[in-house]
Design goal:
The protein is of the alpha+beta class. The protein has two domains: about 170 residues, no CATH class; about 90 residues, PDZ domain (Pdz3 Domain), CATH 2.30.42.10. About 50% of the residues lie in helices and about 25% in strands. The strands form four sheets. It has a four-stranded antiparallel beta sheet with strand order 6-5-7-8. A three-stranded antiparallel beta sheet has the order 3-11-4. Strands 1-2 form a two-stranded antiparallel sheet.
């Protein structure tokens, strides 16, 4: 079931991305030959609209658009008025960045809907927080809490040492855990489930005291009216985009200097597991998680790597400086190298995810 949800989320996000390219290309009267739901081989043609054939394909995830002249090796592309290559560099850049904008706008929509429905939020965000309670926000990998099965998003209901019950507010609960080398009983709720976990704190997790490997915070629900939800949704989306971009740039800098930790990167297998965890917590959590993936897709696609939108934008910038098109041979070779490197990275991350499951 988690795999099915993952494919649905991925398909929606990719289709939103491609829809951005499609709509802007159509706006500037660029010929779009096909809008495919799923990936080839083609299963059937659905309908045709304004010269674009909409198709259903056998690989049931994602989608694509075929824009005439986007790849500089199509016959007649330079002389045709409705070709991508015949348009000025500003229009080309607008078409290329439209997919990224589509993912950003979709994330904004999801987060805004979350605010209208009631979005989980920590205290101190400057918004009215209702039904505040203590929630596990982080679980360190391979810590006693992780090995016992606690997960981010679990709501703490009780914390016991034998018959002694602790105050479960974040600070008192953390102090209670840090002063207890004896086994502790955590009673948490996860969605509609109530779970009881017995965990023994250990040294080496928190400096100067024992710990179980969790971070606690007070989290409640923020529910806003329509226009306020849109405004706050935009602010949150912009902030998350900024944080994602800075974290990605930091990781790339570490990779260049040989200090990058590949364990920070989650592949498809890891995402499937995360989708399953989030789905248990409820629909609003799933909306928020989908918004985060959409933001990540928008940021990653802007990287100046051939085969990504950012790489194609880089070519447009180079062509603007040179005042002539890049050779199709150079363009296609660079795209092939970029695509190959991305596939290798994805395989490495997927292999690491699978090894962690074994």
């Amino acid at each position: 079931m988690s795999l099915l949800y993952f494919f649905i989320i991925l398909s929606v996000l990719v289709i939103v991305h491609e829809l951005g390219h499609f709509l802007v290309a159509k706006y500037f009267k660029i010929r779009v030959d096909e809008f495919g739901l799923g990936y080839p081989p083609r299963a059937t043609s659905l309908f045709s609209w304004k010269g674009t054939l909409f198709t259903l394909n056998w690989l049931p995830f994602g989608g694509f658009v075929k824009i005439f002249g986007e790849n500089p090796n199509e016959q007649g592309e330079e002389t045709s008025a409705n070709s991508f290559q015949s348009k000025n560099r500003g229009i080309q850049a607008a078409v290329l960045v439209a997919g990224v904008v589509g993912n950003f706008l979709f994330a904004w929509l999801l987060i805004s809907v979350g605010f209208m429905s009631g979005l989980p939020s920590p205290m101190g965000v400057g918004l009215p927080v209702l039904d505040a309670h203590t929630v596990i926000t982080t679980v360190l990998k391979d810590s006693p809490a992780d090995l016992a099965g606690l997960k981010s998003g679990d709501a703490l209901q009780k914390l016991l040492r034998d018959t002694q019950e602790a105050d479960i507010s974040p600070l008192p609960a953390s102090e209670f855990i840090g002063s207890s080398p004896e086994p502790l009983t955590f009673v948490v709720t996860r969605g509609s489930e109530t779970l009881t976990k017995v965990i023994t704190p250990k040294d080496g997790i928190v400096a100067g005291k024992v710990g179980v490997g969790v971070a606690l915070d007070t989290v409640g629900t923020v529910k806003l009216p329509f226009f306020k939800a849109l405004y706050e949704g935009f602010k949150v989306t912009a902030r998350l985009t900024y944080l994602t971009a800075t974290a990605l740039l930091k990781f790339i800098g570490q990779a260049i200097t040989g200090r990058a930790d590949l364990s920070q990167v989650t592949g498809p297998v890891g995402l499937v597991g995360m989708v399953g965890d989030v789905r248990v917590l409820g629909f609003v959590y799933l909306l928020s998680f989908t918004a985060l993936i959409s933001i990540n897709l928008s940021v990653v696609n802007l990287l100046p790597i051939p085969a990504l939108d950012g790489g194609r934008l880089l070519f447009v910038a180079i062509e603007t400086v040179l005042r002539r098109p890049i050779s199709p041979k150079v363009f296609n070779r660079a795209n092939m190298i970029g695509f190959t490197l991305l596939i290798i990275l994805m395989l490495l991350v997927t292999f690491r995810d699978i090894m962690h499951l074994i």
